[in-house]
Specification:
- The protein is α+β, with helices and mostly antiparallel strands and about 675 residues long.
- It contains 22 helices and 13 strands.
- The strands form three sheets. Strands 2, 3, 4, 5, 8 and 9 form a six-stranded antiparallel beta sheet that branches.
- Helix 13 runs antiparallel to helix 14.
- The longest helix is centred in the middle third of the chain and has 86 residues, at about 350-435.
- The termini are far apart.
- The relative contact order is 0.05.
Length: about 675
Amino acid sequence: MHGRESWSRSMMYALWAYGFESLSSFKNSVRCRNFRVHSVVVFSLLASSLLHAQSNSDCAAMLQSSAQLYFSNPDSSNTLAIQAQRCAEESNQPLLIAKALSFQGRYHLLKSDLEDAEKKLNEAEVIYREHNDNAGIAYVLKLKSILQGRIGNEAESVALLEKSVEMYRRSDDHEGLISALLNISLDHTDSKQYDKAEADLSEVYQLIGKDTVENHYYYFQNLGGLRHAQGKFAEAVTWLSAASRVATKFEMEDAIPTINTRLAISFLAMNNYSSADSCLVLAESIALEGNMMHELAEAYEVRIDYYRKREMFKEALETMTRLTELNSRILNIEKINSIAALEKKLALSEKEKQLEKQKADTDHARAQTEKLFYVAAAIFLILIITAVMFFRTRKLKNFIASQNHVLEEKNSIIESKNRDITDSITYASHIQQSILPADSQIAQHFADSFIMFRPRDIVSGDFYWVEQSGDDVILAVGDCTGHGVPGAFMSVIGTNLLNEAVNEHGITEPAAILSRMRKNLIAFLQKNSDGKGVKDGMDISVIVYNKKKFTVQFAGAYNSVYRLRNGELTEFHADKTPVGFYFEDDLVPFTTRNIDIMSGDQICLFTDGFADQFGGPRGKKFKYRQLKETLCAVNSKSCSEQKTHMERVFDEWKGNLEQIDDVCLIGVKF
């Protein structure tokens, strides 16, 4: 009984700490009346958790929370796993102890603490084998495979992974089998066994169905890696972008650096330096912020290739220096404990030390003679190398001088072509501007309104659209796949799809508009890609304002909208499916939502470019929490004043950093 009370006390402290941390997070997220609701929810959860503190199921619940937190907050996930281990030990639940140990081992792998990772995984494996838990054994073997890969034992890594797949099949563990197949597909890709990798991923696709978000992410990531290895770089970018989209939408922070580094590799293969650079900036920033040293090292390696391809040798050398320092840190972290243990195992007994000393004395004279010989040989070799390098350097200088002239001519040609391309894109931007509604068109329907439109490049993948049909005014804001020229093409298609749905077919119900757009877009992309289906599309929000009835309806594909009333913000969530390809056999229908409005209310439609912009004093994302706070703060001002304020906030936040995405923010008052 005493042990149980001790655990309950520890659990109470952990829950209160978690509760106050959650309250702080909620308070900072939205300075509107929603905070009061969040406070009630959090303290209700605390009360509920304390009431159930005596139940054995608490240990399993903590482990479930640990698993759910891992991809967005690994540190909190590990803290919960440690607490769950203590809980399981006090309630004598060995399988839950093993599960908690394996979760801690996974965390230490992420942090490059390989000795601690191996210790935790070995302890977990012993317990699983004692209880003949095949699924648990398979999970530990899969993590050990990653560990062996980290220290260069590729053969052992593959062997462990194959055993893991076998154990998952034996235990009929659906989720575990998917994870193991995803891992082994990477080994088959690396060893150029593309048929096997294709078969692995095909089986994953059959199993995955409506499975977890992270499995969809890894399926897209691995398929993109396979296409890159096969030299199909455009297809690789398509699948890797799908993985990036999942990671960003569901805040899988430990996956974002990896997927952006892989995207950069494919963009480099296509000589798309701008996109490669943007991906690397994002990967390096997130990896630094999360102290993910392996992910940061991978990004640096690709950054060196980027600089080499662009002949920026000074920057390449600086990055190589940073990579060397980082690898030294990783090596120290991973090896220092192993070296200490090895020294203990190899420590000589006193008798052996004496024998070694005698042998050393006997060999000392011979060693001195050999040392003199080696020194002389080394000096002679250095003289030869110096002479060779002298003549090669002189020859190289002459070669460089001759090549400089050739490079100057090529640079002149490239600059001329770049001017032609830039002029063409600039002209295309005028065409795009003519397609977008003028501010005056929106002002005809909403007297007090503003449009903040900031393309990342000359042309934009974001777009907005307005039209009146009878008493209904339809307003839409869209974010197409990609940015620059590819995104601009998709934005033109989006505008045409809206015109076709509203003007030609008279559809004014928001969900019906989106359904019509998705159907026509999928048909168009299939027709123009040999039936294979390009994985492109758009996130979009649509509102329909009936002037006569004074009502507003809303439907969205990933893009939500905000209603502001007297400085308080209410978010109306979109459906989590895009206008375009997703899972073709399971297209989720769109939903129309009614938004209650009063005179003086404001509706804001937006894309993700503002919230995702890096900047501020620490180079972090602006994020939606801060966007909501800023909109609440200026809600009482006129829309023209709001636009000036929002543009100033964006510019000050971005500072000297590069704009990473197109930005579109529209506000209308009623």
